Amino acid sequence: MFRFAVALISLLVDARLTFAAAQTKLDATYTATLLGLPIGQISWTVELQHSGFRSVAKGTISGFLRLILDAEGEVTAHGALSGGKPVASNFTLKLLAGRWSDDVRIEFSGNKAKEYVAASPPNPSANQVPLTEADRIGAVDPMTALLVHIPGNGPTAVPEACERSVAVFDGHTRYNLRLAFERLDTVKTDQGYQGPVVVCSVKFFPVAGYDPKHFLVTYLAAQHDTEIWLAPLAGSRLLVPYRTSISTPMGLGILQATKFVFAPSKLARH
Q1: Would you put residue 89 in left (φ > 0), alpha (ψ -120 to 50) or beta?
Q2: Distance CA 217, CA 233 (A)
Q3: What three-state secondary structure class fits 64?
Q4: Which of 168, 219, 223, 268 has a CA between 20 and 30 Å from the CA of residue 254?
Q5: Counting Cβ atoms within 10 Å, is residue 196 exposed (0-12), middle (13-18) or buried (19+)?
Q6: Whether pTM exceeds 0.70
Q7: Which of 151, 204, 203 is nearest to 173 (CA)?
Q8: pLDDT at position 19 over 60
Q9: Helix (H, G, I), strand (E, B) or coil at 177
Q10: Distance between CA 75 and CA 91 in Å, rounded?
């Protein structure tokens, strides 16, 4: 369930950053709910500076779900900027849920991703769609994909933010996320940001490294009402996730910011 919560904020977009002098930090907290009941919390920080970027998310299970499952995890990504665009160098994911754990590292060289997985499934399904070398080319890691660049000089919360498709590789599965514009809205956070957001629909398309008969894969691929709300990241021409929602077999799952605060970045130069 925690990995699913992390996936909610990873249902995203193109990670092409082009900013001239962005030096800012986002300090955000998200609460995950199912049928209106809290099931988890995620803290997320994003730091941008002339020379690079760093993104860290940490989460835990909470509420009634903790009675049956104790889980926690951390996801990080960092890299440099080349020509105003982010070039991820490393992505790590560490999750622990009872007896189950996942430990993934992805290293990027040029336009290609190489994964290192601590423990692979002992008996992969005979239906597994194989992951090829070509699937690692041109894909972005889930954390770098959380940063959405809007070119130009005008507002950033615009419909064009949704008109895109992104190739994502999480170390296990390669998939595409296709976004489409739904509407413009405004939000008021308990702590921090108040202002416009752009709401996009999201469609999941598995590509490789998955079992086509796995329930979660078939369920996600069949969804048509998943949404992502994107809010401006102050001091840059970037949008970042503010809220996501998706139908689950147990009801509507929502991950929404309760804290969305900006501050000057202290990211050290590499």
Answers
A1: alpha
A2: 31
A3: helix
A4: 168
A5: middle
A6: yes
A7: 204
A8: no
A9: strand
A10: 8
| 72: amino acid identity, one letter | E
145-183 pLDDT tens trace? 888 888 888 899 999 999 999 999 999 999 999 999 999
| Token pair belonging to 132 | 């090829």
The DSSP secondary-structure symbol of 50 reads T
Q: Hey, what amino acid is at 186?
A: T
Report d(CA 224, CA 101) in Å as an integer: 30
Look-up: residue for tokens 């999750």? 95
Say what the pLDDT of residue 175 is. Answer: 95
Residue 221 host element (H or E): helix 215-222
Residue 49 burial class via C-beta count within 10 angstroms: exposed 0-12, middle 13-18, buried 19 and up: buried
- How would you label 221-244 residue by residue, b for 16+ Cβ within 10 Å and e otherwise? eeeeebbbbbbbbbbbbbbbbbbb
- Distance CA(153)–CA(20), nearest Å, equals 12
Residues β-bridged to residue 60: 41, 72
**List of E strands, 150-226:** 164-169, 174-188, 191-192, 194-208
Q: Which residues contact 128 (CB under 8 A, 6 or more apart)?
A: 209, 210, 211
Decide if pLDDT at 20 tops 50.
no
